[in-house]
Design a protein that fits this description.
With 304 residues, the chain is α+β, with helices and mostly antiparallel strands. It is 23% helix and 24% strand.
């Protein structure tokens, strides 16, 4: 599933190509793609027609388009950041969702689910989803901690790349949990946007084992770990994200290449880039965790 860097890459592309434009029509080709919009596909399409996209925003693994409150006449200029937005078009990419920008007339993708056309006659925005685990919905927004968020994701914690991310508060919350450090990192109510890939990479950089109890961590260790999370995510952003297959691409259909820089994730039995010890793979929550046994010593009974 795309994590924060991959979703941010998509958000930037959508912002570049869609912000300031007015939707002329929406075509829902598969109702499952808008299943979270309770009134149904027809209502979804009707309520978006004539709406202007103000900007594209993101928190954690969710992205959304802020919409102007009322229908905008064709040719209306971008309203800018000062105008208060109304509803938001909330997007979750799921396992295989893609937002693609395509010239009008481009052949439909095999798994095209929703098409957005614009009043200027320019490129379309398309939601493509092979496995249909992702989805789109319209949602009201609410202010949380000085940030406007769609109500379905208002409970999601700030992510490490946000200006409102409070390192000191997260350190205390994380240390107060009674769980393993990787489980805490994946808890989106503590830190949003971190998934399996970047959790393993950050833990390796911080020299911490995934099963280390949070209660045993010192404040400097947690701060170092959060710094590693931020560092690895920024590095992944610079590389366009991590693509293991064709299901994750940016809005132009291009894959990221951070997979070439992964130190431990997916590197079982290969030498650790830091010390040369073969990387270990362990089962973890129906997934896998990858560590260097030498750089990241396991706590007692960790592998049972």
């Amino acid at each position: 599933m795309p994590e924060l860097p991959e979703v941010e890459v998509v958000r930037r592309g959508v912002a570049e190509h869609v912000a300031g434009r007015t939707v002329s029509a929406v075509e829902v080709l598969h109702p499952r793609a808008v299943r979270r919009h309770v009134p149904g596909p027809d209502d979804f399409a009707a309520r978006l027609a004539g709406r202007q996209v103000l900007r594209a925003r993101r928190r954690g693994k969710y992205l959304w388009l802020e919409l102007a409150e009322d229908e905008a006449p064709q040719g209306t200029e971008f309203v800018g950041a000062a105008e208060a937005p109304g509803e938001a078009l909330l997007t979750h990419l799921g396992m295989s969702g893609q937002l693609l920008v395509q010239p009008v007339g481009t052949a439909d993708e095999k798994h095209l689910r929703v098409r957005f056309s614009f009043a200027d006659g320019g490129p379309e925005l398309r939601f493509v989803d092979q496995r249909t685990f992702g989805g789109l919905s319209l949602a009201d927004q609410v202010e949380v901690g000085g940030v406007l968020l769609p109500t379905p994701v208002a409970h999601i914690a700030a992510d490490p790349l946000e200006a409102v991310f409070d390192v000191a508060a997260v350190v205390e919350k994380l240390r107060s949990r009674r769980t393993g450090i990787k489980r805490a990192l994946l808890d989106q109510s503590l830190v949003s946007g971190v998934g399996n890939i970047y959790a393993d990479e950050a833990l390796w950089r911080a020299k911490l084992h995934w099963a280390r109890p949070t209660a045993t961590l010192t404040r400097p260790e947690v701060r170092a770990l959060l710094a590693a999370v931020t560092e690895v995510m920024r590095s992944a952003l610079d590389a366009g994200g991590t693509s293991f297959d064709a299901l994750y691409v940016n809005v132009n259909g291009q894959s990221g290449y951070f997979d070439r820089s992964l130190a431990v994730y997916g590197q079982a039995d290969r030498p650790c880039p830091r010390c040369g010890t073969p990387v270990r793979r362990d089962a973890f929550m129906n997934r896998s965790s990858y560590t260097c046994p030498a750089c990241q010593p396991a706590p007692r009974n960790a592998h049972r």
